[in-house]
Structure formats: structure tokens, C-alpha cells
Amino acid sequence: MQILKTTYLSLGSNLGDKLDNLQQALYLIAEQVGTIIKVSSVYKTASWGFQSEDFYNCCIAVTTYSKPGQLLINLIQIEQKLGRIRNTSAGQYKARSIDIDILLYENEITNLTNLKIPHPSMLERKFVLAPLAEIAPSLQHPIVHKTIATCLQNCDDSAEVNIINTQLIKPISLVEKYNYIAIEGNIGAGKTSLSKMIGEDYNAKLVLERFADNPFLPKYYADMERYAFPLEMSFLADRYQQLSDDLAQFDLFKNFIISDYYIFKSLIFAQVSLSKEEYALYRRMFDIMYKEIAKPDLYIYLYQNTDRLLDNIKKRGRDYEQNIAPEYLEKIHQGYTSFIKTERQLNTLVIDVSEFDFVNCPTDYQAIIKKINNYKAS
């Protein structure tokens, strides 16, 4: 399991729309680094070490799974996205759209060529210590062993530092918005891959469908009419048991849970594969179980066009899936569409991923995370 760490960052800007630069930096840090748990006021101060426009500065506390080296890489990439051009001349300062420095990382001391933590100049700079003391006054500096509030009192910097009358917006992360997300989609849509990626990035509890353990599945694809009912009943029983067990402590502990299916999937597939009489019996059993299952805070449906689905199915190479007909996939999609239109109890987000390669392209993955984070129920 990854270990969550707390880091403190200093942000500054003195080019262009300075407030917007800081705000956009917060959004990108929340998307690509971790959860922002505290944001200081914005402080206005004269440029430090060179003549230029006044700076707007703030400090933030972030929880992250990134180690210091990777954290630095991520922050440099964010600076570049926001137009920062780094000065290659040592010891020379210049105006910049955004400047993000790692001040502290837990109580660790890092002494690398390109990264030193704690930041070697932070105790000399009031524009760093003032906002940091606002959000973490009792935090101890790991080298001088004094609180940040004390360090601010002892700072010899005579620069004037003033709070401006505008507060930045603290981005809300997935783990703050949701406790339980279910990700659904057609066969080959990428729901399991996306669930695993989000689970790893946010250290979520994963609930993955146990399709590989179902002995009826290969038989069903070979003879659908004969094995449809036992397959759907066994899937329903297994999904009910798994969700009941894995979500049993959900309300008590408020874990962040990601599932690559929701139990309503059983009904959608049963509508396609069962006869009218079999479906009527199946529906009676389903309705009893459905009442007992915890509803996700967010239900995500990943749409992939049929050609992409077939291509994905071929690539993953499961023998029993290779003869799935396009018409069957279309029926499954129609079943999901009907369910989404009629099921009012769920907070549903549909994402078209037909043009996304979120497994191999980080920007596509981040675009999906942004869609999830920015989604507001209508």
C-alpha cells in the first residue's frame, strides 16, 4: 500500500493575471499531485532579489503519494503548463507567471543536487513564512527544531507583506466528494483498467468483478441459449455476495471505494440473454437483492463505440470472447442507455471514451479525472 505524505508548497506569481495563475496552479496540483487540504490567504509583497512587479504569494498543504523527486518533476511540469520559463543563470531572479517551491515534506531532510528539503531559503523569506504560519503555525522545522510561528517571529526579513482581500478556491478532490464510485461500461470499454488506475492514484479500496471464477462464462459464449440462465443467476449471486461483503463497512469507515461494476449490470445483461419467462423469474430475484445493496455516490458509464470495443476485446485475448458479435454489444449498450434514462436513484455521469487512450496517455487519463471531479448532478 502506498503511504500518504503531507508536503507544504509555496506559490508565487508576478506576471499576467497573478490571482488566476495561482488559482490555476491549485487546480493542476489537485489533479496531478494530491489532495490540497489547506490554502493560505494571498499575500502581496515586493519582488525579492530583483526589481519587478509585486508578487502574490500563498502556501498550501497537500497530501500526496509522490516521493520528493517525483513531486518536483510534477511541479515543474505544472509550472511549464502555466507558462513558466525557467532562468538558467544561477543566482539570477526574473519575473515569472508561476513559481512553486517545495518547502517541507513531512519531517524529512533531502539533500540532492536539484532538490533540497527543507527549502534552504525559506527561513529568510517573510513572504514564505507568513502564509505558512497561517496554515501550519505549530509545524516544526526539521533542522532548526522550531515552530513555523517562531521562525516567522525570528525572521530578519524587513519586507512588507500584506494580505489581499481575495481568497483562492480550494479544489475538492475525489476522495472529498465521493465515498463510493461505481464504473460501468460495455464489454471492453475499459472500466476495470480505469478503476485500477483511480484506485492506485487515490489509494482506494477496489471492488473488481470476479468474472474469471465463473465456470459458466466460457460455456455461455459457446452456447448462449443453453447456458444463459445459469450464467446470469450465478453472476447475480456472486455480485450480490461480493458487494454485500465489500461494502458492509462502507458507511461506518467512510472508505473511498472504486468498483468496476454495479449490481444493475446483472439486469442489463439478463434482459439481453434470457427468454421472457426466464427474465420474469430472474427479475423477481433481482428486485429482492437490489433493495439491500448500497448505492454508489457516483455511477459512471464509459461509452465506447462498437469498433473500439471489438478492438479492445481482441487485444486482451480472452479466447471465449473472440466470437462476440457486434449486434450483441449493441444490445448491451441499448440496455445501459435504457437503464440510465429510467433509473433516477443514481447520480449518473456518462463519459464518451471512444477517442481516449487513458491507459497509455496521461493527458487523456487526467481529462477523465477532471470530468469526474467537475461533475455536478443536475
Q: What does this molecule look like?
A:
The chain is of the alpha/beta class and 378 residues long. It folds into 2 domains: 5-163, 7,8-Dihydro-6-hydroxymethylpterin-pyrophosphokinase HPPK (Alpha-Beta Plaits, 2-Layer Sandwich); 174-374, 3-Layer(aba) Sandwich (Rossmann fold). Helix content is 43%, strand content 17%. It is built from 14 helices and 13 strands. The chain has helices at residues 18-32, 68-81, 126-135, 148-154, 174-177, 191-201, 216-222, 224-246, 250-253, 264-273, 276-290, 306-316, 326-342, 362-374; strands spanning 5-13, 34-39, 43-45, 55-64, 99-105, 110-111, 116-117, 161-163, 180-185, 205-207, 257-259, 298-303, 348-352.
